[in-house]
Sequence to fold (476 residues):
Amino acid sequence: MNAAPPKRRSKKVAPPAAEARDANASSLPETAARGRGDKRERILAAAVSTFAQHGFFSTRVSDVAKAAGVADGTIYLYFTSKEDLLLSLFQDRLDKLLAYMKKELGRLPDPKTRLRAVIELQLGLLENQRELAEVITVTLRQSSRLVKENATPLFAAYLDAIATVIQEGQRDGSFRKDVSPFTMARAMYGALDGIALTWVLGKADRGGLKRAAAQIAGVFLRGLEVDPDASEEPTAAP
Amino acid sequence: MNAAPPKRRSKKVAPPAAEARDANASSLPETAARGRGDKRERILAAAVSTFAQHGFFSTRVSDVAKAAGVADGTIYLYFTSKEDLLLSLFQDRLDKLLAYMKKELGRLPDPKTRLRAVIELQLGLLENQRELAEVITVTLRQSSRLVKENATPLFAAYLDAIATVIQEGQRDGSFRKDVSPFTMARAMYGALDGIALTWVLGKADRGGLKRAAAQIAGVFLRGLEVDPDASEEPTAAP
DNA sequence: CGCAACTGAATGACGGTTCATTCAGCCCCC
DNA sequence: GGGGGCTGAATGAACCGTCATTCAGTTGCG
Fold:
Protein backbone atom coordinates (compact mmCIF):
# COMPACT_ATOMS: atom_id res chain seq x y z
CA MET A 1 0.00 0.00 0.00
CA ASN A 2 1.44 3.27 -0.90
CA ALA A 3 0.36 5.42 1.92
CA ALA A 4 -1.91 7.72 0.05
CA PRO A 5 -3.94 9.55 2.60
CA PRO A 6 -7.27 10.02 0.92
CA LYS A 7 -7.08 13.69 0.54
CA ARG A 8 -9.74 15.62 -1.11
CA ARG A 9 -9.62 15.56 -4.81
CA SER A 10 -8.75 18.93 -6.13
CA LYS A 11 -11.25 20.56 -8.32
CA LYS A 12 -12.07 23.95 -9.55
CA VAL A 13 -9.74 26.17 -11.30
CA ALA A 14 -8.81 27.38 -7.93
CA PRO A 15 -5.59 29.25 -7.86
CA PRO A 16 -2.70 27.54 -6.22
CA ALA A 17 -4.03 26.27 -2.99
CA ALA A 18 -2.92 22.71 -2.94
CA GLU A 19 -5.62 20.89 -1.08
CA ALA A 20 -8.19 22.63 -3.11
CA ARG A 21 -11.02 22.93 -0.78
CA ASP A 22 -13.77 23.12 -3.25
CA ALA A 23 -15.24 25.75 -1.06
CA ASN A 24 -16.04 28.78 -3.13
CA ALA A 25 -18.08 27.15 -5.80
CA SER A 26 -19.39 30.32 -7.22
CA SER A 27 -18.26 30.64 -10.78
CA LEU A 28 -16.27 28.92 -13.39
CA PRO A 29 -13.53 31.24 -14.51
CA GLU A 30 -13.21 28.93 -17.45
CA THR A 31 -10.39 29.74 -19.71
CA ALA A 32 -10.34 33.17 -18.24
CA ALA A 33 -7.36 34.65 -16.52
CA ARG A 34 -4.90 33.71 -19.17
CA GLY A 35 -2.02 35.54 -17.69
CA ARG A 36 -1.71 33.15 -14.82
CA GLY A 37 -4.72 30.96 -14.58
CA ASP A 38 -3.99 28.83 -17.57
CA LYS A 39 -1.47 26.87 -15.64
CA ARG A 40 -3.88 24.24 -14.51
CA GLU A 41 -5.13 23.85 -18.02
CA ARG A 42 -1.64 23.65 -19.39
CA ILE A 43 -0.85 20.88 -17.00
CA LEU A 44 -4.00 19.00 -17.90
CA ALA A 45 -3.30 19.32 -21.58
CA ALA A 46 0.23 18.10 -21.10
CA ALA A 47 -1.09 15.24 -19.03
CA VAL A 48 -3.56 13.91 -21.63
CA SER A 49 -0.89 13.91 -24.20
CA THR A 50 1.77 12.34 -22.06
CA PHE A 51 -0.46 9.75 -20.48
CA ALA A 52 -1.79 8.76 -23.86
CA GLN A 53 1.66 8.44 -25.25
CA HIS A 54 3.32 6.48 -22.51
CA GLY A 55 0.54 5.26 -20.29
CA PHE A 56 -0.12 6.33 -16.77
CA PHE A 57 2.53 4.30 -15.05
CA SER A 58 5.32 4.90 -17.47
CA THR A 59 4.75 8.60 -17.35
CA ARG A 60 6.87 10.48 -14.89
CA VAL A 61 5.42 13.47 -13.19
CA SER A 62 8.46 15.34 -14.32
CA ASP A 63 7.58 14.46 -17.91
CA VAL A 64 4.22 16.10 -17.54
CA ALA A 65 5.84 19.06 -15.88
CA LYS A 66 8.29 19.45 -18.68
CA ALA A 67 5.61 19.14 -21.32
CA ALA A 68 3.56 21.75 -19.52
CA GLY A 69 6.51 24.02 -19.10
CA VAL A 70 6.29 24.17 -15.34
CA ALA A 71 8.36 22.86 -12.51
CA ASP A 72 7.67 19.49 -10.97
CA GLY A 73 6.49 21.03 -7.77
CA THR A 74 3.98 23.26 -9.49
CA ILE A 75 1.87 20.29 -10.38
CA TYR A 76 1.38 19.68 -6.71
CA LEU A 77 0.00 23.15 -6.30
CA TYR A 78 -2.92 22.18 -8.49
CA PHE A 79 -3.29 18.48 -7.87
CA THR A 80 -2.73 16.49 -4.77
CA SER A 81 -1.07 13.53 -6.45
CA LYS A 82 -0.35 11.94 -9.76
CA GLU A 83 -3.48 9.92 -9.37
CA ASP A 84 -5.48 13.01 -8.66
CA LEU A 85 -4.12 14.52 -11.81
CA LEU A 86 -5.46 11.62 -13.82
CA LEU A 87 -8.79 11.75 -12.11
CA SER A 88 -9.15 15.48 -12.56
CA LEU A 89 -8.28 15.11 -16.18
CA PHE A 90 -11.00 12.61 -16.52
CA GLN A 91 -13.56 14.69 -14.81
CA ASP A 92 -12.73 17.86 -16.58
CA ARG A 93 -12.72 16.44 -20.05
CA LEU A 94 -15.67 14.13 -19.75
CA ASP A 95 -17.78 16.90 -18.33
CA LYS A 96 -17.07 19.04 -21.30
CA LEU A 97 -17.56 16.26 -23.79
CA LEU A 98 -20.86 15.29 -22.32
CA ALA A 99 -22.14 18.82 -22.30
CA TYR A 100 -21.18 19.26 -25.91
CA MET A 101 -22.74 16.01 -26.91
CA LYS A 102 -26.03 16.71 -25.26
CA LYS A 103 -26.23 20.09 -26.84
CA GLU A 104 -25.52 18.72 -30.29
CA LEU A 105 -27.95 15.86 -30.03
CA GLY A 106 -30.65 18.18 -28.84
CA ARG A 107 -30.71 19.69 -32.28
CA LEU A 108 -31.50 16.49 -34.12
CA PRO A 109 -35.05 15.31 -33.69
CA ASP A 110 -34.81 12.01 -35.54
CA PRO A 111 -33.38 9.06 -33.56
CA LYS A 112 -31.72 7.52 -36.57
CA THR A 113 -30.04 10.75 -37.43
CA ARG A 114 -29.00 11.08 -33.85
CA LEU A 115 -27.52 7.64 -33.74
CA ARG A 116 -25.47 8.44 -36.76
CA ALA A 117 -24.45 11.64 -35.09
CA VAL A 118 -23.37 9.72 -32.04
CA ILE A 119 -21.19 7.52 -34.16
CA GLU A 120 -19.73 10.50 -35.88
CA LEU A 121 -19.17 12.24 -32.61
CA GLN A 122 -17.45 9.21 -31.28
CA LEU A 123 -15.44 9.05 -34.44
CA GLY A 124 -14.51 12.66 -34.00
CA LEU A 125 -13.51 11.94 -30.47
CA LEU A 126 -11.28 9.17 -31.62
CA GLU A 127 -9.75 11.20 -34.35
CA ASN A 128 -9.34 14.59 -32.84
CA GLN A 129 -9.04 13.66 -29.25
CA ARG A 130 -7.61 10.29 -29.63
CA GLU A 131 -5.35 10.95 -26.74
CA LEU A 132 -8.26 11.55 -24.47
CA ALA A 133 -9.99 8.47 -25.78
CA GLU A 134 -6.95 6.38 -25.13
CA VAL A 135 -6.57 7.64 -21.66
CA ILE A 136 -10.20 6.96 -20.97
CA THR A 137 -10.30 3.35 -22.02
CA VAL A 138 -6.93 2.44 -20.71
CA THR A 139 -7.57 4.04 -17.41
CA LEU A 140 -10.87 2.35 -16.98
CA ARG A 141 -9.22 -0.96 -17.37
CA GLN A 142 -6.13 -0.94 -15.37
CA SER A 143 -5.68 1.80 -12.93
CA SER A 144 -6.18 1.57 -9.25
CA ARG A 145 -9.46 0.81 -7.69
CA LEU A 146 -9.74 4.38 -6.52
CA VAL A 147 -9.46 5.81 -9.99
CA LYS A 148 -11.71 3.17 -11.37
CA GLU A 149 -14.40 3.93 -8.90
CA ASN A 150 -14.35 7.63 -9.45
CA ALA A 151 -14.06 7.48 -13.16
CA THR A 152 -16.69 4.89 -13.84
CA PRO A 153 -19.70 7.09 -13.10
CA LEU A 154 -18.43 9.73 -15.46
CA PHE A 155 -17.97 7.25 -18.21
CA ALA A 156 -21.32 5.72 -17.47
CA ALA A 157 -22.94 9.08 -17.97
CA TYR A 158 -21.49 9.19 -21.43
CA LEU A 159 -22.78 5.76 -22.26
CA ASP A 160 -26.16 6.64 -20.89
CA ALA A 161 -26.37 9.53 -23.25
CA ILE A 162 -25.96 7.10 -26.12
CA ALA A 163 -28.41 4.69 -24.60
CA THR A 164 -30.97 7.45 -24.37
CA VAL A 165 -30.84 7.97 -28.09
CA ILE A 166 -31.57 4.33 -28.70
CA GLN A 167 -34.27 4.29 -26.10
CA GLU A 168 -36.05 7.18 -27.71
CA GLY A 169 -35.77 5.45 -31.02
CA GLN A 170 -37.46 2.44 -29.54
CA ARG A 171 -40.26 4.55 -28.15
CA ASP A 172 -41.08 6.19 -31.40
CA GLY A 173 -40.76 2.98 -33.33
CA SER A 174 -37.51 3.66 -35.12
CA PHE A 175 -35.68 0.78 -33.54
CA ARG A 176 -36.52 -2.73 -32.58
CA LYS A 177 -37.50 -3.10 -29.00
CA ASP A 178 -36.04 -6.45 -28.15
CA VAL A 179 -32.61 -5.19 -27.23
CA SER A 180 -31.46 -3.29 -24.23
CA PRO A 181 -30.50 0.29 -25.04
CA PHE A 182 -27.73 0.14 -22.53
CA THR A 183 -26.33 -3.02 -23.94
CA MET A 184 -26.39 -1.59 -27.40
CA ALA A 185 -24.80 1.62 -26.24
CA ARG A 186 -21.93 -0.31 -24.73
CA ALA A 187 -21.62 -2.46 -27.78
CA MET A 188 -21.50 0.53 -30.04
CA TYR A 189 -18.92 2.23 -27.96
CA GLY A 190 -16.93 -0.96 -27.85
CA ALA A 191 -17.15 -1.53 -31.57
CA LEU A 192 -15.85 1.90 -32.37
CA ASP A 193 -13.27 1.62 -29.71
CA GLY A 194 -12.17 -1.69 -31.12
CA ILE A 195 -11.64 -0.09 -34.48
CA ALA A 196 -9.68 2.65 -32.85
CA LEU A 197 -7.57 0.11 -31.03
CA THR A 198 -6.46 -1.44 -34.26
CA TRP A 199 -5.91 1.96 -35.64
CA VAL A 200 -3.76 2.92 -32.73
CA LEU A 201 -1.86 -0.31 -32.84
CA GLY A 202 -0.80 -0.15 -36.36
CA LYS A 203 -1.54 0.99 -39.79
CA ALA A 204 -4.95 2.25 -40.76
CA ASP A 205 -5.08 5.78 -41.98
CA ARG A 206 -7.70 8.32 -41.18
CA GLY A 207 -9.65 7.52 -44.28
CA GLY A 208 -9.78 3.94 -43.18
CA LEU A 209 -11.12 4.92 -39.83
CA LYS A 210 -13.84 7.00 -41.36
CA ARG A 211 -14.84 4.27 -43.74
CA ALA A 212 -14.86 1.74 -40.96
CA ALA A 213 -17.13 3.91 -38.87
CA ALA A 214 -19.50 4.29 -41.78
CA GLN A 215 -19.67 0.54 -42.23
CA ILE A 216 -20.32 0.02 -38.59
CA ALA A 217 -23.03 2.60 -38.60
CA GLY A 218 -24.55 0.81 -41.55
CA VAL A 219 -24.54 -2.55 -39.89
CA PHE A 220 -25.80 -1.27 -36.59
CA LEU A 221 -28.57 0.77 -38.09
CA ARG A 222 -29.76 -2.10 -40.17
CA GLY A 223 -29.39 -4.45 -37.30
CA LEU A 224 -31.54 -2.19 -35.20
CA GLU A 225 -34.28 -1.77 -37.73
CA VAL A 226 -37.68 -2.94 -36.81
CA ASP A 227 -38.31 -6.12 -38.62
CA PRO A 228 -41.91 -6.12 -39.68
CA ASP A 229 -42.21 -9.66 -40.94
CA ALA A 230 -39.66 -11.58 -38.94
CA SER A 231 -41.08 -13.36 -35.98
CA GLU A 232 -39.06 -12.52 -32.98
CA GLU A 233 -35.46 -12.44 -32.03
CA PRO A 234 -33.80 -15.69 -31.30
CA THR A 235 -32.40 -13.88 -28.34
CA ALA A 236 -31.35 -17.16 -26.90
CA ALA A 237 -33.86 -18.69 -24.61
CA PRO A 238 -32.11 -20.71 -21.96
CA MET B 1 18.56 -2.07 -24.88
CA ASN B 2 17.61 -4.78 -22.56
CA ALA B 3 17.74 -7.42 -25.16
CA ALA B 4 17.83 -10.80 -23.59
CA PRO B 5 21.42 -11.42 -22.72
CA PRO B 6 22.49 -14.62 -24.34
CA LYS B 7 22.58 -16.84 -21.37
CA ARG B 8 23.51 -20.42 -21.47
CA ARG B 9 21.95 -22.74 -23.87
CA SER B 10 20.88 -25.95 -22.27
CA LYS B 11 18.51 -27.84 -24.45
CA LYS B 12 16.97 -30.42 -22.19
CA VAL B 13 13.29 -31.03 -21.94
CA ALA B 14 12.27 -27.76 -20.40
CA PRO B 15 14.30 -27.22 -17.31
CA PRO B 16 15.18 -23.76 -16.19
CA ALA B 17 17.14 -21.92 -18.77
CA ALA B 18 15.95 -18.39 -18.57
CA GLU B 19 16.21 -17.64 -22.25
CA ALA B 20 13.80 -15.24 -23.74
CA ARG B 21 10.69 -16.79 -25.04
CA ASP B 22 11.27 -17.65 -28.59
CA ALA B 23 9.43 -19.17 -31.42
CA ASN B 24 8.63 -22.76 -30.90
CA ALA B 25 5.01 -21.94 -31.18
CA SER B 26 4.09 -25.15 -32.82
CA SER B 27 4.14 -28.05 -30.47
CA LEU B 28 1.84 -28.16 -27.53
CA PRO B 29 3.79 -29.40 -24.57
CA GLU B 30 0.43 -29.86 -23.01
CA THR B 31 0.11 -30.48 -19.38
CA ALA B 32 2.69 -33.15 -19.71
CA ALA B 33 5.81 -33.03 -17.61
CA ARG B 34 4.00 -33.06 -14.36
CA GLY B 35 6.59 -33.98 -11.84
CA ARG B 36 8.73 -30.87 -12.03
CA GLY B 37 8.10 -29.20 -15.29
CA ASP B 38 4.87 -27.61 -14.18
CA LYS B 39 6.74 -24.78 -12.59
CA ARG B 40 6.71 -22.61 -15.63
CA GLU B 41 3.04 -23.26 -16.04
CA ARG B 42 2.37 -22.51 -12.41
CA ILE B 43 4.09 -19.20 -12.79
CA LEU B 44 2.15 -18.37 -15.91
CA ALA B 45 -1.12 -19.25 -14.28
CA ALA B 46 -0.29 -17.14 -11.29
CA ALA B 47 0.68 -14.32 -13.59
CA VAL B 48 -2.58 -14.19 -15.54
CA SER B 49 -4.52 -14.05 -12.38
CA THR B 50 -2.36 -11.50 -10.67
CA PHE B 51 -1.93 -9.26 -13.67
CA ALA B 52 -5.65 -9.31 -14.31
CA GLN B 53 -6.39 -8.43 -10.76
CA HIS B 54 -3.96 -5.62 -10.24
CA GLY B 55 -2.71 -4.71 -13.68
CA PHE B 56 0.78 -5.18 -14.95
CA PHE B 57 2.39 -2.25 -13.22
CA SER B 58 0.78 -2.62 -9.87
CA THR B 59 1.70 -6.26 -9.72
CA ARG B 60 4.92 -7.01 -7.96
CA VAL B 61 7.02 -9.85 -9.17
CA SER B 62 6.99 -11.11 -5.65
CA ASP B 63 3.21 -11.22 -5.78
CA VAL B 64 3.32 -13.53 -8.74
CA ALA B 65 5.96 -15.60 -7.03
CA LYS B 66 3.86 -15.94 -3.94
CA ALA B 67 0.78 -16.86 -5.93
CA ALA B 68 2.75 -19.46 -7.81
CA GLY B 69 4.30 -20.80 -4.66
CA VAL B 70 7.84 -20.21 -5.77
CA ALA B 71 10.60 -17.89 -4.73
CA ASP B 72 11.08 -14.54 -6.39
CA GLY B 73 14.28 -15.60 -8.00
CA THR B 74 12.75 -18.68 -9.54
CA ILE B 75 10.75 -16.57 -11.90
CA TYR B 76 13.98 -15.34 -13.40
CA LEU B 77 14.99 -18.89 -14.15
CA TYR B 78 12.08 -19.17 -16.53
CA PHE B 79 11.69 -15.64 -17.77
CA THR B 80 14.22 -12.96 -18.37
CA SER B 81 12.19 -10.11 -16.94
CA LYS B 82 8.79 -9.10 -15.77
CA GLU B 83 8.04 -7.88 -19.23
CA ASP B 84 9.13 -11.16 -20.72
CA LEU B 85 6.79 -12.90 -18.35
CA LEU B 86 3.88 -10.91 -19.69
CA LEU B 87 4.91 -11.51 -23.24
CA SER B 88 5.33 -15.22 -22.74
CA LEU B 89 1.95 -15.36 -21.11
CA PHE B 90 0.50 -13.73 -24.09
CA GLN B 91 2.12 -16.00 -26.55
CA ASP B 92 1.39 -19.16 -24.72
CA ARG B 93 -2.27 -18.48 -24.15
CA LEU B 94 -3.12 -16.94 -27.44
CA ASP B 95 -1.52 -19.80 -29.27
CA LYS B 96 -3.67 -22.26 -27.45
CA LEU B 97 -6.80 -20.21 -27.82
CA LEU B 98 -6.31 -19.80 -31.50
CA ALA B 99 -5.65 -23.46 -32.05
CA TYR B 100 -8.79 -24.37 -30.17
CA MET B 101 -10.85 -21.86 -32.03
CA LYS B 102 -9.75 -22.99 -35.43
CA LYS B 103 -10.44 -26.56 -34.59
CA GLU B 104 -13.92 -25.79 -33.32
CA LEU B 105 -14.87 -23.61 -36.23
CA GLY B 106 -13.69 -26.22 -38.65
CA ARG B 107 -16.57 -28.37 -37.56
CA LEU B 108 -19.26 -25.90 -38.45
CA PRO B 109 -19.85 -25.59 -42.16
CA ASP B 110 -22.37 -22.77 -42.12
CA PRO B 111 -20.92 -19.23 -41.82
CA LYS B 112 -23.84 -17.94 -39.81
CA THR B 113 -23.53 -20.76 -37.37
CA ARG B 114 -19.86 -20.10 -37.22
CA LEU B 115 -20.32 -16.46 -36.51
CA ARG B 116 -22.58 -17.31 -33.65
CA ALA B 117 -20.00 -19.76 -32.47
CA VAL B 118 -17.38 -17.06 -32.56
CA ILE B 119 -19.52 -14.86 -30.41
CA GLU B 120 -20.14 -17.67 -28.01
CA LEU B 121 -16.49 -18.51 -27.94
CA GLN B 122 -15.65 -14.95 -27.21
CA LEU B 123 -18.31 -14.93 -24.56
CA GLY B 124 -16.83 -18.04 -23.09
CA LEU B 125 -13.46 -16.43 -23.12
CA LEU B 126 -14.81 -13.48 -21.25
CA GLU B 127 -16.60 -15.59 -18.74
CA ASN B 128 -14.23 -18.41 -18.09
CA GLN B 129 -11.01 -16.77 -18.86
CA ARG B 130 -11.89 -13.28 -18.05
CA GLU B 131 -8.54 -12.80 -16.50
CA LEU B 132 -6.82 -13.62 -19.72
CA ALA B 133 -9.18 -11.38 -21.63
CA GLU B 134 -8.48 -8.52 -19.28
CA VAL B 135 -4.79 -8.95 -19.55
CA ILE B 136 -5.02 -9.02 -23.30
CA THR B 137 -6.93 -5.83 -23.80
CA VAL B 138 -5.27 -3.90 -21.09
CA THR B 139 -1.86 -4.93 -22.21
CA LEU B 140 -2.52 -4.02 -25.77
CA ARG B 141 -3.41 -0.57 -24.72
CA GLN B 142 -0.92 0.54 -22.26
CA SER B 143 2.20 -1.46 -21.92
CA SER B 144 5.53 -0.60 -23.31
CA ARG B 145 6.21 -0.35 -26.96
CA LEU B 146 8.14 -3.57 -26.85
CA VAL B 147 5.29 -5.57 -25.49
CA LYS B 148 2.86 -3.89 -27.77
CA GLU B 149 4.87 -4.75 -30.80
CA ASN B 150 5.27 -8.35 -29.92
CA ALA B 151 1.77 -8.90 -28.76
CA THR B 152 0.00 -7.21 -31.60
CA PRO B 153 0.66 -9.86 -34.22
CA LEU B 154 -0.68 -12.55 -31.96
CA PHE B 155 -3.82 -10.63 -31.30
CA ALA B 156 -4.14 -9.83 -34.97
CA ALA B 157 -4.10 -13.53 -35.74
CA TYR B 158 -7.08 -13.97 -33.48
CA LEU B 159 -8.98 -11.19 -35.17
CA ASP B 160 -8.09 -12.58 -38.54
CA ALA B 161 -9.65 -15.86 -37.61
CA ILE B 162 -12.89 -14.03 -36.98
CA ALA B 163 -12.52 -12.06 -40.14
CA THR B 164 -12.12 -15.25 -42.10
CA VAL B 165 -15.49 -16.47 -40.95
CA ILE B 166 -17.12 -13.32 -42.21
CA GLN B 167 -15.18 -13.44 -45.41
CA GLU B 168 -16.32 -16.94 -46.14
CA GLY B 169 -19.84 -15.89 -45.43
CA GLN B 170 -19.50 -13.17 -47.97
CA ARG B 171 -18.19 -15.57 -50.54
CA ASP B 172 -21.02 -18.00 -50.23
CA GLY B 173 -23.59 -15.25 -50.11
CA SER B 174 -24.52 -15.46 -46.44
CA PHE B 175 -23.37 -11.95 -45.63
CA ARG B 176 -23.48 -8.65 -47.36
CA LYS B 177 -20.37 -7.84 -49.27
CA ASP B 178 -20.13 -4.13 -48.74
CA VAL B 179 -18.31 -4.28 -45.46
CA SER B 180 -14.75 -5.17 -44.70
CA PRO B 181 -14.45 -8.49 -42.89
CA PHE B 182 -11.58 -7.15 -40.89
CA THR B 183 -13.43 -4.10 -39.85
CA MET B 184 -16.38 -6.15 -38.77
CA ALA B 185 -14.18 -8.56 -36.92
CA ARG B 186 -12.67 -5.74 -34.94
CA ALA B 187 -16.04 -4.22 -34.34
CA MET B 188 -17.43 -7.48 -33.07
CA TYR B 189 -14.52 -8.04 -30.81
CA GLY B 190 -14.84 -4.50 -29.56
CA ALA B 191 -18.55 -4.74 -28.97
CA LEU B 192 -18.23 -7.84 -26.87
CA ASP B 193 -15.27 -6.39 -25.12
CA GLY B 194 -17.21 -3.25 -24.37
CA ILE B 195 -19.91 -5.30 -22.75
CA ALA B 196 -17.30 -7.09 -20.74
CA LEU B 197 -15.79 -3.83 -19.69
CA THR B 198 -19.04 -2.69 -18.16
CA TRP B 199 -19.43 -6.07 -16.64
CA VAL B 200 -16.03 -5.89 -15.09
CA LEU B 201 -16.54 -2.39 -13.89
CA GLY B 202 -19.63 -2.96 -11.99
CA LYS B 203 -22.85 -4.75 -11.72
CA ALA B 204 -24.08 -7.05 -14.42
CA ASP B 205 -24.39 -10.66 -13.49
CA ARG B 206 -23.44 -13.59 -15.66
CA GLY B 207 -26.92 -13.96 -16.98
CA GLY B 208 -26.79 -10.37 -18.07
CA LEU B 209 -23.63 -10.99 -19.95
CA LYS B 210 -25.07 -13.95 -21.74
CA ARG B 211 -28.20 -12.08 -22.67
CA ALA B 212 -26.20 -9.13 -23.86
CA ALA B 213 -24.10 -11.32 -26.08
CA ALA B 214 -27.21 -12.87 -27.57
CA GLN B 215 -28.61 -9.46 -28.36
CA ILE B 216 -25.42 -8.39 -29.98
CA ALA B 217 -25.31 -11.53 -32.03
CA GLY B 218 -28.84 -10.79 -33.11
CA VAL B 219 -28.09 -7.26 -34.16
CA PHE B 220 -24.89 -8.15 -35.93
CA LEU B 221 -26.34 -11.08 -37.78
CA ARG B 222 -29.24 -9.08 -38.96
CA GLY B 223 -27.03 -6.17 -39.78
CA LEU B 224 -24.89 -8.42 -41.89
CA GLU B 225 -27.71 -10.02 -43.78
CA VAL B 226 -27.72 -9.59 -47.47
CA ASP B 227 -30.25 -7.02 -48.34
CA PRO B 228 -31.93 -8.25 -51.51
CA ASP B 229 -33.48 -4.96 -52.49
CA ALA B 230 -30.82 -2.57 -51.29
CA SER B 231 -28.59 -1.32 -54.03
CA GLU B 232 -24.92 -1.78 -53.43
CA GLU B 233 -22.76 0.55 -51.45
CA PRO B 234 -24.61 2.64 -48.93
CA THR B 235 -21.20 2.71 -47.37
CA ALA B 236 -20.84 6.41 -47.37
CA ALA B 237 -20.39 8.03 -50.71
CA PRO B 238 -17.69 10.67 -50.72
C1' DC C 1 9.07 44.53 2.80
C1' DG C 2 5.56 40.76 2.43
C1' DC C 3 3.04 37.52 0.41
C1' DA C 4 1.92 34.34 -3.28
C1' DA C 5 3.35 31.69 -6.97
C1' DC C 6 6.68 29.02 -8.42
C1' DT C 7 10.99 26.27 -8.57
C1' DG C 8 13.85 22.07 -8.67
C1' DA C 9 17.16 19.58 -5.89
C1' DA C 10 16.80 16.45 -2.05
C1' DT C 11 14.40 12.70 0.11
C1' DG C 12 12.67 8.24 0.91
C1' DA C 13 10.11 4.38 -0.56
C1' DC C 14 9.37 0.99 -3.44
C1' DG C 15 10.24 -3.03 -6.14
C1' DG C 16 12.83 -5.33 -10.14
C1' DT C 17 16.78 -7.86 -10.41
C1' DT C 18 20.92 -10.23 -8.77
C1' DC C 19 23.73 -13.68 -6.69
C1' DA C 20 25.80 -16.17 -2.76
C1' DT C 21 24.04 -19.95 -0.63
C1' DT C 22 21.42 -24.23 0.15
C1' DC C 23 20.32 -28.88 -0.70
C1' DA C 24 18.05 -32.82 -3.18
C1' DG C 25 19.15 -35.95 -6.32
C1' DC C 26 22.57 -38.40 -9.16
C1' DC C 27 26.92 -40.55 -10.56
C1' DC C 28 30.71 -43.36 -10.01
C1' DC C 29 34.42 -45.58 -7.79
C1' DC C 30 35.56 -48.46 -4.08
C1' DG D 1 25.63 -51.00 -2.00
C1' DG D 2 27.16 -47.11 -0.22
C1' DG D 3 29.00 -42.83 0.49
C1' DG D 4 31.72 -38.88 -1.21
C1' DG D 5 31.46 -35.46 -4.40
C1' DC D 6 29.19 -32.97 -8.01
C1' DT D 7 25.32 -30.55 -10.41
C1' DG D 8 22.17 -27.12 -10.95
C1' DA D 9 17.41 -25.83 -9.55
C1' DA D 10 15.66 -23.09 -6.11
C1' DT D 11 15.85 -19.63 -2.72
C1' DG D 12 15.26 -14.91 -0.76
C1' DA D 13 17.71 -11.10 1.31
C1' DA D 14 20.24 -7.30 -0.23
C1' DC D 15 21.27 -4.07 -3.75
C1' DC D 16 20.45 -0.16 -6.49
C1' DG D 17 18.04 2.64 -9.73
C1' DT D 18 13.94 4.99 -10.30
C1' DC D 19 10.48 8.13 -9.35
C1' DA D 20 6.54 10.54 -6.49
C1' DT D 21 6.48 13.85 -3.31
C1' DT D 22 8.30 17.54 -0.32
C1' DC D 23 10.08 21.88 1.08
C1' DA D 24 13.60 25.43 1.62
C1' DG D 25 14.46 28.78 -1.21
C1' DT D 26 13.87 32.28 -5.26
C1' DT D 27 11.26 35.42 -7.91
C1' DG D 28 8.43 39.23 -8.67
C1' DC D 29 4.44 41.86 -7.96
C1' DG D 30 1.76 45.03 -4.61
Remarks:
- Chain A has two domains: 34-79, 83-224.
- Residues 2, 60-62, 72-73, 76, 81-82 of chain A lie near DNA strand D (CB under 10 Å from a C1').
- The CA atoms of residues 18 and 78 of chain A lie 6 Å apart.
